[in-house]
Amino acid sequence: MTVRVRFAPSPTGMFHVGGARSALQNWIYAKQQGGVFVLRIEDTDAARNKPEWTEGILSALDWIGITRGSYEGPYFQSANAGEHRAAAARLYESGRAYYCDCTREDVQARTGSQYQGYDGYHRDLGLGPGEGRALRFRTPDEGTTVVVDLIRGEPTFENKLIEDFVIARGDGSPVFLLANVVDDMTMGITHVIRAEEHLPNTPKQQLLWEALGVKPPVWAHVPVVVNEKRQKLSKRRDKVALEAYRDEGYLAGAMRNYLMLLGWAPSGDREIVPWSVIEDEFRLDEVNLSSAFFDEKKLRAFNGEYIRALPVAEFIDACQPWLTGTDTIAPPPWQPEEFDADAFAAVAPLAQTRIAVLSEIVPNVDFLFLATPLIDEAAWTKTMKDGSAELLDDAVAAFEALESWDAESLKSTLEAVGAERGLKLGKTQAPVRVAVTGRTVGLPLFESLEVLGRERTLTRIRAARLRLV
Ligand code: GLU
């Protein structure tokens, strides 16, 4: 039997990092089993779907390594609507489902409780199809439904506790539970790997598989991803969109490595490992049962390591979207013609060791391309103290006299200027840094001045000096 897994997102919003993790787990499982990964877009919630969300899912999957053309699909659930209706009709015709026109209020009035599920009132009343009549599945009165779950063992559900649930609405449209089963069935899915939040659906879905006469799949419900307060990551509260991380400058390699560590770890005392190790070592049945904390700080640290591991040329390439701007990334503060690729290449290795996400490249290098630096006023006030004006005067004079404009000479020159005042280098360089870059932190100062060049450096220090009059 060929293993066939699927990832079945609903295009109702940005692509959630938890979804990305499920997609990767399915992807690896298929690969390990010599199986097939199917992508199905569950687009039947017409009110909430948008085509751009589908495109977002496809491109985010592509970014993370599940590339277009390397999987089966995408299929669209809406294209299968005929099959969904046919399955509903088969269940009705075989007596496994019946029509019911009770409202929620009717059920409440009969059971005396708003919490009670459907009471089976229409089970044997023989109501035929008709406008406003929902189709309900007749669940077994006895016995249990045992779900075979690669992560959870065999969760067992008492059938008598499962209400006769709706499979098609009053307008005849099949609900998600049924559509999802019918699609899995028609697509020959053998393993359903998905988030834990679907576990309550699973006994109902398994009953549908059995009633439709097909052997149910093996299930694997992976624990949810939570924030630091152990709340399920939510798109209203947390940063969950994979696209947002991509546009901030997380590397796909770091992201997918980190996502796979949510609830699982490779052998040994390692976390940052090549993707091939994850593909070899990942075991679905080793995934932890407890919910997994999505720790953005840790992800940042991971990303920094991945950035540092890039060959410089690749780092320079990887920075390009932030140096130019794209459809989804804001343009930098300089004009395209102000950018100087050689100057950027000269400082890139210095920046590479200092940034944790690629978008941070911009504030680190903008001083090189802007005609005048963007002055951070708070940094200015904090740094420019009594004596700064004179110090800048001396720095200008000393720099003007320099024969060779190189980092080492610049450093020893400024060191000497500070020493005359009894200042350590750190204190001496702060006003110069703010004058030239506009900030108190950034790339190593003297290398920066070397690349910026004599004229521009002196102009900026003089301009700062004038502000201090
Ligand atoms: N469309 C469902 C979701 O996005 C998928 C459910 C499943 O994987 O079975 O949650």
From TrEMBL:
Coiled coil regions, renumbered to chain: none
Annotated motif 'HIGH' region, positions: 9-19
Domain spans labelled Aminoacyl-tRNA synthetase class I anticodon-binding: 314-464
Residues engaged in binding ATP: 235
EC number: 6.1.1.17
Location of the Glutamyl/glutaminyl-tRNA synthetase class Ib catalytic domain: 3-300
Positions of Zn(2+) binding: 100, 102, 122, 124
Superkingdom of origin: Bacteria
Cofactor(s) listed in the protein's UniProt record: Zn(2+)
Family: Belongs to the class-I aminoacyl-tRNA synthetase family. Glutamate--tRNA ligase type 1 subfamily.
PANTHER family: GLUTAMATE--TRNA LIGASE, GLUTAMATE--TRNA LIGASE, MITOCHONDRIAL-RELATED
Name recorded for this polypeptide: Glutamate--tRNA ligase
Organism field: Micromonospora parva
Source organism phylogeny: Bacteria, Bacillati, Actinomycetota, Actinomycetes, Micromonosporales
